[in-house]
Write a structure and sequence with these properties.
This protein has 462 residues and is α+β, with helices and mostly antiparallel strands. It has helices spanning 19-25, 46-56, 84-90, 134-137, 143-146, 152-159, 183-191, 198-220, 222-227, 231-246, 308-326, 336-352, 364-367, 449-461; strands spanning 62-65, 71-73, 76-77, 101-107, 111-118, 162-165, 249-250, 255-258, 279-284, 286-287, 296-301, 400-403, 406-409, 423-426, 429-434, 437-440. 32% of the residues lie in helices and 15% in strands. A hairpin with a 2-residue loop joins strand 2 (71-73) and strand 3 (76-77). Helix 8 (198-220) runs antiparallel to helix 10 (231-246) and helix 11 (308-326) packs antiparallel against helix 12.
Length: 462
């Protein structure tokens, strides 16, 4: 909400401000430059994105919010990340965006003018109508509390979009179509992002490369993690260091699941100890400063070597992934790669005697979920797209997706022989669909069991 309509957010234990202090705080400030993170690297590509959205909704006002801060506890907010469609349309990805709005105003019969409503930099005096003490007293938005924001002219130069003061809206957005209440607009904002441009593919490759480095960090840290009573959490922290140092952070909550925890699809508690006789399922991704995320999973033997049973499970999952990857090509149905992977899994389970035959869907007791999804600004990207354009659609050149079959052999599953119980294996890679099929973006991380063992050995011996 605007500073004009609300006093600065202060704490119950804040000191009062005397008249003399208020006057002193408003005097003798030199011009200050924008911080280094105030940049919009996507500026060259955002006009075309807005034009594509405009063409879908001629003559209608569209309101795309950045989102609002959410309280974590008392006066502490969660770290802010803008709504993905807002970031895609504006190029603005920073933590200074809460409350901002992109408004696409109808202009003529078919066109729109983009107007960005922002909370500009807090003034150092009260001349503008804003509270002149907000810059040092407002805990939520004040410059001395959370950092400098651009003024309106700076915001226009950064984005190439006409910018207006958020106060001009009087505390509420203008009437128009807004994705949280308009399924058609929400679907369009997802569908427009299904095919990535070359700039987006570069950002995703950067995320994959940083994630690869993070996986290497984890392997090097295994001796200390194995010695810690909550080794899973040690691994989570090691990867998080790489993610924050190289990008915006992790693209989703890291899954560091050892032993039977690997049979829980989204094990993010990460509070378990590590046992050298077990496997570690690590599902993690670095999110770039431009908010594109990788999503990679490797299942690693904590001893550095697979046992015969672990290798047998791993090789079946790898064969399923290879079949899924081979099914990727322009014009193939999106679900084809999942079906190809599951056919291999079902046949393998039948060969083991776990299933009577490979027909039907009984294999899902052990595979649980789909074998992949679109990837981009969201880890499960374009999720609001209509089924006929995504799940029931066909693949196109430029789409980026994961292929991630898994076997989750629960520790209490009496349909399994005892030696298989409690083993969870997932292998996940990121691929971009090309004219010739698909390019494996995460090829720097080994996938075959022999290569995994060799890779781990080289890092642990270094």
């Amino acid at each position: 909400m605007s500073d004009r309509h609300h006093r600065p957010r202060t704490g119950s234990h804040d000191l009062s401000v005397s008249t003399e202090l208020a006057r002193f705080m408003s005097e003798d400030w030199a011009p200050s430059p924008l911080p280094l993170d105030a940049r919009v690297t996507a500026r060259a590509v955002t006009p075309a994105r807005r034009a594509r959205l405009s063409a879908r909704f001629p003559g209608e006002r569209l309101v795309i919010p950045a989102g609002e801060l959410r309280v974590r506890s008392n006066d502490c907010d969660h770290r802010f990340r803008p709504y993905s469609a807002y970031a895609w349309l504006t190029g603005l990805t920073g933590e200074d965006q809460p409350g901002h709005l992109l408004v696409m105003e109808p202009s003529g019969t078919h066109d729109h003018e983009a107007v960005l409503y922002v909370r500009p930099r807090s003034p150092r005096t009260g001349d503008s109508g804003r509270s002149g003490d907000a810059f040092y007293r407002d805990r939520r938005y004040g410059e001395f509390w959370v950092g400098r924001r651009p003024d309106l002219a700076e915001a226009e130069r950064l984005t190439g979009i006409r910018c207006a003061d958020l106060d001009d809206l009087g505390g509420s957005p203008p009437p128009g179509r807004e994705p949280s209440t308009d399924p058609e607009l929400a679907a369009a904002l997802s569908e427009l992002r299904l095919v990535k441009d070359s700039w987006e593919v570069e950002q995703l490759q950067l995320a994959v490369d940083h994630t690869t480095a993070g996986f290497e960090d984890v392997v090097r840290a295994l001796p200390r993690a194995l010695a810690h009573p909550r080794g899973e959490r040690w691994i989570e922290g090691v990867f998080a260091l790489r993610a924050r140092a190289e990008g915006n952070g992790t693209g989703y909550e890291t899954i560091a699941a050892s032993g039977a925890h690997a049979c829980v699809l989204h094990w993010t508690r990460n509070n378990g100890a590590l046992d050298p006789s077990h496997l570690l399922l690590l599902d993690a991704g670095v999110e770039t400063d431009t908010l594109y995320t990788a999503d990679i999973t490797r299942t690693l033997p904590l001893s550095g070597r697979f046992t015969p049973v672990q290798r047998r499970v791993y090789e079946l999952v790898l064969a399923a992934q290879e079949a899924g990857i081979a099914a990727l090509r322009p014009g193939a149905r999106f679900r084809d790669f999942h079906r190809a992977a599951m056919r291999v899994i079902a046949e393998g389970l039948a060969e083991w005697g776990v299933l009577k035959d490979a027909e039907g869907d009984l294999h899902r007791r052990y595979t649980l979920c789909n074998s992949g999804h679109m990837l981009g600004l969201d880890v499960h990207d374009c999720a609001q797209a209509r089924a006929d354009t995504y799940l029931d659609g066909v693949l196109e050149e430029g789409q980026v997706l994961t292929v991630e079959p898994g076997l989750y052999l629960q520790p209490d599953d009496l349909t399994l022989p005892p030696e298989l119980r409690g083993i969870g294996v997932r292998i996940e890679d990121d691929l971009v669909v090309t004219a010739a099929g698909a390019h494996l973006m995460s090829s720097a991380l080994p996938r075959t069991p022999d290569a995994v063992e060799e890779w781990m050995g080289s890092l642990l011996d270094a």
